[in-house]
Amino acid sequence: MADLGLTFSNELILTGIKAASDLEAIETAAKHLFEKGLVKESFISAIQEREKVFATGLPTEGFGVAVPHTDVEHVVEQTICIGILEDPVPFKVMGGMDEEVDVKIMFMLALKEPHSQLAMLQAVIGMVQKPDILEKLATEKDTGAIYDLVMEELENMEIEE
């Protein structure tokens, strides 16, 4: 298994997020991480501000995905929060601020070590390149089943260190 040194549990999977915008969706997940004591309060505004400048939407087959993240100084404990939106919301596309993608699934990264970012992005991108996995993530309501699916994918993944 790729050892990503993360705190991750089904309590960090949010389903049925109702949001009118990308920043509202990000705020919902960021506040959840703050309430769990995994990030500093500054994480909430920092991750929203970063999204405005460096968009994280990925146009993937089936459902759009976003990978919001921000600087390490806002993180208490390295973690990932998965947010499944009830209805997709438009996010700007990573590297193409003029384009938008309707995002259904967010992988919010809260990383303490800058070098972890590449490994975690590789892991997420490996997962989101599989339309069948995205379909299961987007439609599953049981956080335990989502957790098992994500852990199985991570265990089978080879990450370049």
TrEMBL record:
**Top-level taxon:** Bacteria
What species was this sequence derived from?
A: Alkalibacter saccharofermentans DSM 14828
- What InterPro entries is this protein classified in? PTrfase/Anion_transptr, PTS_EIIA_type-2_dom, PTS_SugarTrans_NitroReg
Residues in the signal sequence: none
Which stretches make up the PTS EIIA type-2 domain? 6-153
Pfam families documented for this protein = PTS_EIIA_2
The protein's name: PTS system IIA component, Gat family
